[in-house]
Amino acid sequence: SPYLIPARLAKSGDNGKRRCFDRTGTEFIVDGFLNLNKPAGLTSHDCVAKVRRLLKLKRVGHGGTLDPAATGVLPIAVGRATRLLQYLPEGKAYRATVRFGVRTATDDLEGEVLERSPAPGLELGAIQAVLDQFCGTLQQVPPSYSAIQVGGKRLYQLARAGAAVDVPVRTVVVDHIEVLGWRSQDYPELDLAIACGPGTYIRAIARDLGDLLGVGGTLAALTRTTSCGFHLADSFTLEELAAAVEQGRFQPIRPELGVAHLRAIALDEALTFRWVRGQRMIVPASTGAIGEICRVHRDSGEFLGIGELQQDAEGLAENGEDAEPANLAETPEPAEPAKTEQVLLRVKLGFVDAVDQKAEGN
Questions:
Q1: C-alpha distances in Å from residue 171, one per residue of 127, 156, 196
Q2: Which tens digits make up the pLDDT trace of 131-174?
Q3: pTM of the entire predicted model
Q4: Which of 80, 92, 178, 326 is 20–30 Å from 224 (CA)?
Q5: 134 with 177: CB under 8 angstroms?
Q6: pLDDT tens per residue across span 21-32
Q7: Residue spans of beta strands (DSSP E) within 184-292
Q8: 67 catalytic per annotation
Q9: Which of 330, 334, 328, 267 is nearest to 302 (CA)?
């Protein structure tokens, strides 16, 4: 079911930023995620703007930029879920097509062609012999046309102005790279599946692979199949979103599902009372590792926000403060359990505040 909160729970001064209406005219506040399948030709910002207009919401953000020519998963957060974007899983996966024999200014087909030389003699075996060099921890030079900032300006702005800039090398991680298809022709094309960490430029992989083979290469097509825990098979288009809104079927993904990879902690009513007021509390050391980020729920299941486990450096447990430990949800054993008997749970992000709690009690 959709994660919709009755508008009566809105705080004063909300100014309608999170309100929308279903087809019966009932007013709701919307918080959650959308798994959008971005079309080619739109920037990520364009997609956010379209979602804002469709939902009549101001508070909308995305979970990772896709180039205009790229398609695929673009996680969108609406309402208070925008504050959860920083806690989404970092892994991404792509289907990419590399065209050999071509070098461009942007490292994809959108830019000026700098060099074109047919490479009909290139064989798949030669590519497979070097492909492992693009897996693991890499030192990567991002494309000159990218959103990285140098001296307070975006690289693409400097490139368009004709400025000579030393693009900073970045450390990135590629977890997996696999050949999906191969087309031998004057300008051969290679289809790849790539799983990687944040900050990895697939355009740079296409460029560097072509350079390593001595024939040049550029990115011909790109689809993001996974991002921030969302998958292409479960995504929907802007047209499908518009139809769902028009027909009153819009159902955003509940906020807590976006952070389901985090360890869960469940609080009883007394500790929920403390949580919504931003107060720290004592939990058993077996809860998790010091510094671990957790998702916090009321023991009835309601999502309360994001917490962090901290060392009890102030001795609150010894002083008798917060004596009642939290009730814990069933979660895996922590990889690095804390050394002390009890640790602190601190509020990193409160998703339900005292005003909401009071409203629910009416």
A1: 23, 20, 12
A2: 999 999 999 998 887 777 777 777 777 778 777 777 889 999 99
A3: 0.83
A4: 80
A5: yes
A6: 555 555 555 899
A7: 189-196, 217-227, 230-231, 263-267, 281-284
A8: yes
A9: 267
